[in-house]
Amino acid sequence: MNIQTHQRIDTTLCGKPIALGDGSSRIELMTDTTMQVDHMGLVHGGFIFGLADHAAMIAVNDPNVVLGSAESKFIKPVKAGETVVAEASTESTAGKKQIVNVTVKREDQVVFEGRFTCFILDKHVLG
Fold first, then answer.
1. Helix, strand or coil for residue 91?
2. What is the mean pLDDT of the chain?
3. Quick one: DSSP state of residue 51?
4. Residues 25, 105, 57, CA angle at the centre, nearest 5°?
5. Angle at CA of residue 93, ends 74 and 65, nearest 5°
6. What stretches in the chain show pLDDT beneath 70?
7. Residues 121/96, Cβ–Cβ less than 8 Å
8. Could you tell me how far CA 9 lies from the centroid of its own chain?
9. What does the pLDDT look like over 70-102, one tens digit per residue?
């Protein structure tokens, strides 16, 4: 896989890339107890969102990609110890703007859906 963006991300927190295609990606996150918010083992939604965002960035796969906005829907809870997989695919491209759809699943169950508006900048956002 020739990943050109988010190369220093902590994959234990935001998922490990397992597939990369033209305008698509697949990222796997093994949740653990450090992500849980209570005694029942509920994983904080921020980790699921981070996984989905990571998948969107990798689908665009440009060193200067940034997230402009996101629409997200949390459908089912995730419990610490469960593995979730994000699948991202580019819906449309218009100049520097790309719309990426992301679905996160636990086995066959959808737990999250999102639509990410990504922008490819001329230079790094901090440059």
1. strand
2. 97
3. H
4. 30
5. 70
6. none
7. yes
8. 12
9. 999 999 999 999 999 999 999 999 999 999 999
